[in-house]
Design goal:
Chain lengths: ~550, ~1000
Amino acid sequence: MKKKTLYIMIALAAYCLQGCSGFLDENPKDQMSEEEAFKSPALVYLNTVASLYTYVGNWDGNSGLGGGDRGIYDLNTFSSDEAILPTRGGDWDDGGLWRDLFTHNWGTNNALLRDSWNYIYKVIGIANQSISKLEGYIAENPEEDYFVAYHSEARAFRAMYYYYLLDMFARVPLVIDPDIQISDVAQSSRSEVFAFVVKELQESVENLNTTHSNLEGEYYGRMTQPVAYFLLAKLALNAEVYSSDSWWENNRTDGKNITFPGTNMNAWDATVFYCDKIAALGYDLENSYSNNFAIKNENSRENIYTIPMDPTLYKNRIYYLIRSRHYDHAGAYNLGGWNGASATKEAVTVFGYGTGNQDPRFDFNYHYGKVYGPNGEPIINSDAGVDLEYFPTQVKLSYSTSDTYLKTGGARMKKYEMDTNAQQEGVLQNNDYVLFRYADVLLMKAEAKVRNGGNGSDELNRVRNRAGAPEREATLQNILDERLLELAWEGWRRQDLIRFGLFNKAISDRPATESFKTVFAIDNSILNLNAKLTQNHGY
Amino acid sequence: MQMKEDQKPKGLSHQLLFIIIGMFLSLGAFAQHITVNGRVIDKDGEPIIGASILQENTTIGTVTNYDGEYSLHVPANSTIIISYVGYSTQTISVQNRTTINITLLEDTQLLDDVIVVGYATGSQRTISGSVAKVGKEDMNVGVVLNPLQAMKGKVAGVNISKSGGDPAAGSTIRVRGTTSLSGGNNPLVIVDGVFADMAILNSLAPGDIESFTVLKDASETAQYGSRGASGVIVVNTTKGKSGVKDFSYDGTFGVESVYKNLEMLSADQYRAAATGMNFLDKGHSSNFLEEMQRTGFTQNHRISFGGGSTDYSNYRVSLGVIDQEGIIQNSEMRNYTLKMDASQMMFNNKLLMEVGMFGSKIDKRYVNDYQKTFYSAASHNPTFATTPDSDGIWPEDLNANEIHNPMGRLQINDRESFANINAHAKLTWSITPDLKLSGFGSYTFSVKENQKYIPTTIKAGQGDKGEASRIDHKNSDLMGNLMLNYKKTFGQHYIDALGLVEAQKYTRSGFNATARGFDTDFFGYNNLGAGANVKYGDVGSYWNEYQLLSYMGRFNYVFANKYIATINLRADGSSKLGANNKWGFFPSGSLAWDIAQEDFLKNISQGKISQMKLRAGYGLTGNQDAIAAYNSLSLMGPSGTTTVNGAPAVTYGFNRNANPDLRWEVKRMFDVGLDMGFFDDRLTATVDYYMSKTSDLLYNYDVPVPPFVYPTLLANLGEMKNNGLEVSLTGIPLQTNDMQLTLSANVSYQKNELISLNGTYMDQELSAKQYMNLAGMNGAGFIGGNNQITYQMVGQPLGVFYLPKCDGLIFDEASQSYKYHILDIDGEEGIDLSDGKDRYIAGQAMPKFYVAGNINFRYKNWDLQTQLNGAFGHKIYNGTSLTYMNMVQFPTYNVLKEAPEKNIKDQTVTDYWLEKGDYLHIDYLSIGYTLNTKNIDWMNSLRISASVNNLYTFTNYSGLSPMINSAEVNDNLGVDDKRFYPLSRTFSIGLSVNF
């Protein structure tokens, strides 16, 4: 009896091993295999090229080329002399994060540095997967030329991300193989990274479509020819900086003597060359400065590269307005407000605030003085029981609780038209986020011409005329000032100051800083994970 | 163990403990019959109720009544067997006598109480592992709303804690501490053989539970292989008893009130302190903390009936409702429970058929986001009204951006309902009296539904014009096993061998949707179509499934009632793991020696030592709960939206770093213990020491980007160590007919250390970062920066405080206020508060010692019981005081009464607010009266009781309560930061009656 039962048990167990051999297999239904995801040409495009663009905008705190509220944009803006995030009593104290950024004491344990690095390399890693996949398709289907176009687009896209690394971190690992091992990841010098980015863009730019990518349609938000040329122009304009492997010493090679890689032009001629390429693709200044930042700005003739924004479709977010406006100012429009970011004293001075020659763009870019609600009524400062007023010259790094201007010091960001239908307190708005635009191209050209010994007044004054500002001579100082006036809050100021050698100068609330600070530190947590990586000079 | 007779009403006890032993048909059916009468008493002359009287080798029998009397018609020459649990069985020849009075003697060792040890059943005599049983008589009394509360503090090494008094919040349970970093730290729960989880356990009515058996060490948890690493709790529910039928009601009713609140500045004090500063005075005088509170109610009702025939069939049904309305408005919990069991013997008692069902529905309403709500309530400008304006809009102080109108926040309708039903059946075929084959099958279906509506009239809902969301999770668990069990005694030898094959299948699916843009709050979450705005990502669903296939063998051997050996072998295959790592093998073994049975000790002890069992065991168990289905596969899912040809499109991508090499996390545990009994077990003591080491630690390791795309990778690296000492004592210093005093206490010491978090993955060296942050501060001015408090570091226990060192306050001339004076301790010039700089390890967040004690005193029909729980050796970061003592945010944010005088204008996180967390808490005090029902023939028992729960806390901690989260590794471990749902003191009365 016992034996019989034992046999039954063994038989059952054996049956289970046999019959249930598939029992431990997994059959996912809510996720798919790679094979499924690349079944058709349409899916190949979707999952190699289109998928890259989902990472350009901001979805969480630190992602996006425009940054969230803790990302690339913040590093490039609040470290400059253009904008400041003051500590207002305990508000915006945040453990000294913003003060440290402003005073160039960001240190080597900094979440913004870590997360920006991880974000950029994540996108590069995904681009590497796409590029490698597409190389496989090209090898298998040499007759299908659309794979080549996809491949070039993904390469140029990846080069754009390397351009940000080059600008911010200088010495970074050039990773192009998705299957690379940790032990093979080591830094290249800044000049090598520079040469790599230039080469990647030059090799792919001719295969890119020429459509203006800010326009809604097939190429909306994509890497097209003008975007790649814009990046090449930036690379040429900053060639002095990018080709130097000892940025902490004042021994840059003059741009006149730098042969721009892949060309026989010097850096300034190359800048002009690429700027002209862009102009030839049909860009022009908008009649009105504010058109570029309107709720409906997709049809701008001036915007070159934008992040498509639509609260329902793409969920890309923008924090600049919410972070800047006062609580009551926001409340009047039923939007969020964090009462933070302001223009610095230096910026206000360049704008000529309070003088007879106030630049017309001050009104486009900043809220100052009394502000008004949707029906034109003055907004009440609920704390003080008086009309809310911003005081541009009362800005400072840190306010004590008893300071009169605790909550009202500083001019506030106004650049993008306020979208009262924006969602999630206003961070999901309809205005496309402008990364690159043609006014910048004109100013780059003006600067390159001047640096090359020529005259850039024509380009400079086209920009000034459009804004309704009186003409100026194209001196380097005037061009730098113009870049502040025209491109306020657009994320260029750190790069511009470094190019002009002024990033480390003393300004209000900040003594002069060491020259190695023109390149950010690599966060310690990143260094700890890969012994081959070394810290940037000076940190 | 002896307390049970006195503590519980006799009527209940007899149903609970009465067992009929199955017998074959009478051989003497034609003999002359007589009626035997008699009385069964104990050595003190007290009647024994429910003792079983059986004619030998038949099923003819009866039980004694409430006076211990019986009457049985049997052949005049037959033999009767008198038995009662806890007493030595007697066999008596009738020999024509018509009156037989019997005095049963207590079984001095009480060792034959059946204990369910996982799949097996045994007794103290046959167990060699560390196993603790909590019977009904040992469970907590007073307001007991879930099974965890019923066993809290009863088993050394099992820590059950709950932070705050929210009826909707659950408890955390840890068996011998935290052994995994990635989840799976909850013990496995087995309810009547069904694999369940904490959600199902919490849905049971505590009154339906007959016993908990906690398997603590690997020598027995290895029976559950890949799921046993965090301990196993085996729950046996109350079944029907053969031979009696009964109907009973249990109920409690209680009122709750807050007993401690934060003392913030009143409106007048606020005005006075803010004189000369800009602030908004709305003219009211409000105390938001008190305004949002109310008197809470709790009630608990359960009816049950059951019974059975003497030839072995029985049934039991129980219906109950548990209802609690919390002391914060709009927070509540209601649990409806149903349980049914039936069993029957067939075919000459060869086949036992058992069927059971249990189901429940728990409806909860949460206080949405504790921190936001309680932070708002404490620090809101007190000159605001506590009511909405005439349009129904709640007034908001826009300057206080991090908080909302607290009364408005209570309008968020945040509900959860959890419904589950289980059906299980078991067939046991007794092939021979020693050999049994059983088949068990179980199916559980559960649905958890979360519904939330944020109205348009409050700050949280204004930006998006209301937000309604619904999330459904559906689980369906199917399991079955076949088990062959052989038990036999040969002379001095006893063997118990068991073989098992088992299959489990878990299906998980769900759906979620969110809509915004409502023009009316009428619909709430009931009609998502009423919202204008549904974005990409607002709708989603999932489906996944995983399977386990297992083989298990267990061999238990006892020689001469002295030497015990047990071996468990289990092999588990799991679908979730990498193709080459699907199978895991989990062996264990244990040995025990009952020295008290040895003559040499008997000679020395002269009967004073009733038990002296030395145990030692070692085993392997696994943890797979941290791995989700498909984690080892490289799969693509939605990665975002973009435009394709001008139209929005969803793209697909890899959303994590895949690890095809995923394995079980393995825990090795060694346990040595000693069970002692003295003076006929009037004093018992158990001491256990254990060491465990978790290796192949599953963790989301930080990996370098590049080459990885995502910054973390779930991998098996690293090691963690736990060891501890557990002592439990129970003593009965006083025992007479009228009076008994029982004292019990247990202490457990735990030490945890994270040994390493690095290793080789796919030939690449990976290591986690040095300072892994767990918890930090939140709120105005705490966003980013060096506001982290508890960390996880290699070489340290899980959850250590790593803080700047402050030696006191220093007056700052510039701001005319005090600041925290921080010491430069890293040797580098200047103060740097970042990790690795001016910080030090300032203590641990998890207690080193847990202590529990129970005092139970009975005098005649009255009884008094109190339970204490305490924890020692840990610290608490008082982030609430750091925030509310800081005048920098004042008057935008209100402060504590003493804050203006102290004049601190600093919110730097330092060790200034790190305090000792030691406490001893009186959980409850309960007094009961058991009615003498001897002369009432329609009633078996009646007991009334009155209790106070949360009587008092002894502590030096200055915050609201030291009972914050000190157990669960999450983002608030050890940090008391403005999120505490106040504890309530509950006054309750209870009634249990049995007919």
